[in-house]
Structure to design on (338 residues):
């Protein structure tokens, strides 16, 4: 038990990730879209992505990633489950209680967080708050999205980018000066630009009009050009703030774990921050843009393959619909069993 309330910090204690087995290649998409493997790779950096099979939902992804994170931590007990997602199993109720029950955690606090591709950063801030307040000693935070269920399969601009997957971390109460402790989580939004990334139909506004939605409004829509510009600007600024709050310089950052939106955005953010490619973690070529799952899945895979090791000073940053963005820092800890 950490007694000093003001000294409590959320510390990474476990990590896990999972993608569904169904793999979609660029050639698979080119078979029915006006595109090609070369066109997709040069514009997005993506070669393959994973999608849910018929009947599979976000909760299935979340359970697998959550179980792996709990196993990684060496302790299956948590006081809360926070699920960051844009694709809940259904509008009501939240998906997190279902995930908690399936993990044998029935009775703990469980709720969803919705901040699109920045959901994991918002979830980190939420979990850290639960721990700082003494509400929880240990929190399972999961980012999971079945984005292919809301993307128009005939829309080349989104169908080639978005994919499905889940990643999770276990956070425990600890001290701010120990490895794994989260730094300040910088968060921001700009609702005046909410139209840039949205699903127009299905919510209370469309339903209250008592009309059927227009064709295509049930699918995810994105203004790619403006989104690119804001993503680069907002992730860069948030990253600079987070690094300054940690008392670091950007040269101190060993590993950048940015939301895997597309390769061009990642390159632009790295250049703005002066963080070379060999210090950037990346899995977008193999898994695409997995929404709220992006960063925790990247952490899990990088930890597993050794590109992320204990002692690495890390910068995490994300951008998504809302518009919403965020960033934080930590020094990667030595996890149980690693």
């Amino acid at each position: 038990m950490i007694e000093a309330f003001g000294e409590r910090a959320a510390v990474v204690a476990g990590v896990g990730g999972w993608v569904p087995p169904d793999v979609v290649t660029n050639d698979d998409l080119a078979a029915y879209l006006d595109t090609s493997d070369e066109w997709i790779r040069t514009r997005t950096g993506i070669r393959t992505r994973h999608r849910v099979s018929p009947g599979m939902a976000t909760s299935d992804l979340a359970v697998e990633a959550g179980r792996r994170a709990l196993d990684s931590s060496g302790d299956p007990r948590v006081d809360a489950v926070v699920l960051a997602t844009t694709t809940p199993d259904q509008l009501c109720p939240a998906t997190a209680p279902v995930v908690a029950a399936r993990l044998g955690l029935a009775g703990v606090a469980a709720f969803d967080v919705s901040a699109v591709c920045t959901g994991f950063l918002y979830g980190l801030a939420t979990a850290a708050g639960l721990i700082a307040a003494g509400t929880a000693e240990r929190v399972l935070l999961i980012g999971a999205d079945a984005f292919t269920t809301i993307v128009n399969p005939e829309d080349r601009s989104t169908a080639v980018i978005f994919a499905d997957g889940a990643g999770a971390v276990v956070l425990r109460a600890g001290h701010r000066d120990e490895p794994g402790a989260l730094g300040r989580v910088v968060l921001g939004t700009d609702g005046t630009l909410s139209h840039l990334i949205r699903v127009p139909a299905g919510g209370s506004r469309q339903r209250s009009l008592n009309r059927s939605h227009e064709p295509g409004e049930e699918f995810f829509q994105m203004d790619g050009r403006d989104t690119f510009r804001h993503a680069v600007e907002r992730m860069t600024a948030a990253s600079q703030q987070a690094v300054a709050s940690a008392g670091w310089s950007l040269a101190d950052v060993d590993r950048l774990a940015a939301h895997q939106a597309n390769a061009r955005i990642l390159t632009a953010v790295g250049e703005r921050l002066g963080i070379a490619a060999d210090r950037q973690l990346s899995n977008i070529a193999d898994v695409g843009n997995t929404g709220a799952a992006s960063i925790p899945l990247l952490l899990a895979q990088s930890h597993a393959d050794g590109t992320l090791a204990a002692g690495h000073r890390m910068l995490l940053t994300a951008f998504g619909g809302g518009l919403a963005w965020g960033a934080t820092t930590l020094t990667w800890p030595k996890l149980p069993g690693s």
About this structure: Residues 1-5 have pLDDT under 50 and may be disordered. The first strand starts at residue 8 and ends at 18. The longest helix spans residues 224-245. The chain has one domain: 1-338.
